[in-house]
């Protein structure tokens, strides 16, 4: 990308320091032991760690593993299938490989078309204002000179998207309950445990069963204005459709809740907020991508070794586990700087690589854009969006802010009529 006036600000040591300090706090609050342990390996492209596996911290090596589907799999000992198959069933993308996996991705493609995600985000799927409601309320409160908690707004937004996915009208209660259900399941996962206990599995299945009950009804009714109904139209069996809905809820909720407040925090801390929200928006994408690179909302990817192989000079055998420390691979490219050229090995690695590349990326970007589109018109006429008090979330799977206050600084007269 072209280097603009932002490059100098992005390279400003003092400003960048605030970003790095807050990110460190967010990461350590979530994983006080695992995060420092993983970061300690950052200068070793590949390291064998007893009881954990072969840890990869180099983007080029990570890409090789992710693209080599003959030797590395998401199914098998130590892979995500150990965690998710007992809860979601055997065919939910993230625990599939090969031709069946490719066929399921093709079938689900239309659910994530640009138009479909726009509708999901606008709430038209579920027949209500959905997240538009939470965002409009945020705009009105900011415009009136108030303070909002962006973490709460994004939680409402994510809950509304879940409602859209399962085909529920996004009432306040439904949004809250959907979000609580998703968090109850992801909250059980711990980095140091490879499987959930029997009682955790039973509890997670009950919670998901309840959450996806409306999805089952929508699937059976075959109403193509709902996501489950559309999945039926696309040829998915009821079991596959329910598994896919469960997988979307589990993969797509906390990542967004993690990322959006951290994006705004980083833009504030580095002096990039105005350019992130500027009209025209040509700097929006580089800022968002760079914030994804330094936050890495999915900090690790797991693979089970299918056949003997060599990874970054280390021999691995069938049944071993490879842990891609995506957080090390991506952050190794330096501190936040939207003006810097992006190493092709690192580019989009935060969304994975190869056949399991994040299917929900268009939905994630649409959700980010919805928040930025709401804030952009407020940051005009000399007013600026500023970050106030914030509080990292403790002991969560995906590092995040528990609370992050936003307000407007500058002339207080209403600029938008929001
Ligand atoms: C900033 C937000 C997000 C990030 C950083 C992210 C990151 C990732 C990564 C790294 C993977 C690959 C994991 C691997 O190969 O082991 C992945 C897969 C996936 N993501 Fe996302 N994700 C995000 C949002 C979403 C959303 C909103 C959805 C919505 C439904 C979603 C759905 C999925 C699914 C279904 C897969 C599995 C794809 C497959 O196995 O074929 N993600 N994501």
UniProtKB/TrEMBL annotation:
It holds the Pfam family p450. GO terms for molecular function: heme binding; iron ion binding; monooxygenase activity; oxidoreductase activity, acting on paired donors, with incorporation or reduction of molecular oxygen. Keywords: Heme, Iron, Metal-binding, Monooxygenase, Oxidoreductase. PROSITE patterns: CYTOCHROME_P450. Coiled coil: none annotated. CDD domains: cytochrome_P450 (cd00302). It comes from the Bacteria. Belongs to the cytochrome P450 family. This is Cytochrome P450.
